[in-house]
Design a protein that fits this description.
With 151 residues, this protein is α+β, with helices and mostly antiparallel strands. The chain is built from five helices and five strands, in the order ββαβαββααα. It has a five-stranded mixed sheet, with helices on both faces.
Length: 151
């Protein structure tokens, strides 16, 4: 679905179909944005000037008819939803991590509750999924060895 609007700089003030999208990264990061021309926006993200100097998957989340300011509430709601699914939320290139819950108003939280995340959860590296229990085993082993050395 190609959108062509010749509104110039006033584009942000008009109710237009705006695509909310996610860039998903292999490290568990997620960037959520919006555009009235998603194909062009994806090309911009992938360009050298786009700031994301690593591979990502582009996924359209939904299309809303809204001004740019109105669509920003949906954008924030998708960030909250992605965060709840375990994704680390990036603000801007090259990957500054933000907490989307800090700025979430009751309206944004309500919108997030209405959204359905269908892109799965991030794949964790084995080192991330191990957790804290090996450290207890290492500590216990270390203490046992220390006792043996003292005896």
């Amino acid at each position: 679905m190609t959108h062509r609007h010749n509104l110039g700089r006033s584009e942000k003030y008009h109710d237009l179909p705006r695509t909310l999208y996610a860039l998903l990264f292999d490290d568990g990061g997620c960037y959520v944005g919006q555009s009235s021309n998603p194909q062009q926006r994806e090309k911009q993200h992938r360009s050298r000037q786009g700031g994301w100097h690593r591979p990502f998957r582009f996924h359209a989340l939904e299309v809303v008819i809204a001004t740019r300011a109105e669509a920003e509430a949906y954008e924030q709601a998708w960030r909250v939803k992605a965060s709840r699914e375990g994704w680390r939320i990036y603000a801007k290139p090259p990957g500054i991590v933000v907490n989307p819950h800090r700025r979430a108003t009751p309206h944004v939280r309500w919108l997030a509750h209405q959204r359905r995340w269908q892109l799965g959860t991030p794949v964790k590296a084995p080192s991330e999924s191990v957790g804290w229990w090996p450290w207890i085993a290492v500590g216990a082993l270390g203490m046992g060895l220390a006792r043996c050395a003292m005896a």
